[in-house]
# Entry
Amino acid sequence: MTSRRAFLGGSVLFVGGLALAGCAKPEEEAAAAGAKVVLQQWYHAYGEAGTQQAVIRYATEYTKANPDVAINITWNAGDYSAKLHSALLTPKAPDLFEIGDFMYVDVKNGLLAPLDDLVKGSEDEYAKASLEHATADGKLYGLKMMDDAMVLYYRKSILEKAGIAPPQTFAELAAAAKQLSSRDQKGLYLGTDGIGNAPYLLLWSNGADLIDPEGKKVICNSPEAVAALAGLKQLHDDKSLLLDYTTDWGDPAAFIQGATAMQWSGLWAMPAIRKALGDDFGVMPWPKFSDSGQAVSRIGGWFAAVNSKSKHVDEAKKYIDWLWIKQVDLQKDWCVSYGFHVPARKSVAAQTTQFSTGPEKDAADILANTSRAFPNRWDNEMWSLFGQAVVEIAKSGGDAKTLMDEVAVKCQAELDKQLA
# Structure
């Protein structure tokens, strides 16, 4: 998910189609270099080595093919989301940028340009969950750059020694976690707080959700949701969860070091896990909660988006089309040369050999077949209200129905504000 970072400004120096740190105005430098248009593009500061150099190279290649257009890359450390949303309210807003968690309020506030025409006729190329996450009022406002699959990792040798098959239901998961827990190792790691993504996974795996498909009614208090959330309390009562570890669920250290037999984490953790454990691990989706439910995973990743108030909307969309649709080799380079992500376009993912065998292929298949994303109308206040109630249910024995009914009322008021 995107973090919140402080707004910082800066000037740029244009060099060979690309703007770098300096003091000259980009328009002046661009004119000197022969470009008629300078696109201001923002990225958050990826932690993966080589990513900044890669986006600079992509921009330079585009300018070579399109000499009239230059790309000024701004690499943003700190609270990217806060910085971006502050900038979008000013004349100095970027022309195009990336978004992690897509929020409906950005569309309501008129900040984003629709991108439907870029994917018209090729919607099947993208995960349904990604399209739904970036769609508002029937229009698509974000083009997926790469997909991050979140899956349940398990140690093959540990499960086999205990005579446990990879769990296919929540009841089997809870039983396995309890059986695999000992003084030196816990059965399951969901995060330092013992919560993590589990509440959402439990809801989805029992056919429940946070908001109805029409996006108008909060349904986190449905009977299916209430029943599923009780499962998180069971895991805590069984004392089968690893708690208060030094790293959170996104880091594979607990799994690699043997502190847990199973861990919910992301695809990004797989290279480190493979390096440490070889073939002694597998991946699976979060198992179905009941016979009427389904196995689920969570999909993450970043979207390319365009500022609706930009003077260069068409040029920005052409660059997105060139980079994230037409340039197959660059899409593969972005996903697997620095970190480890699944290319967002299914046809490109199929050509990426890193996902052709083993747990890597399993994770890509899990993402393609079971992935879910948060509703884009589930805003920060709703996150907070829901999260507080879940903690009370899981750790303090709060009544799930009573608490979820209260949350539903408060979250419905928040939703109504968005829709007003």
Observations:
- The first helix runs from residue 26 to 33.
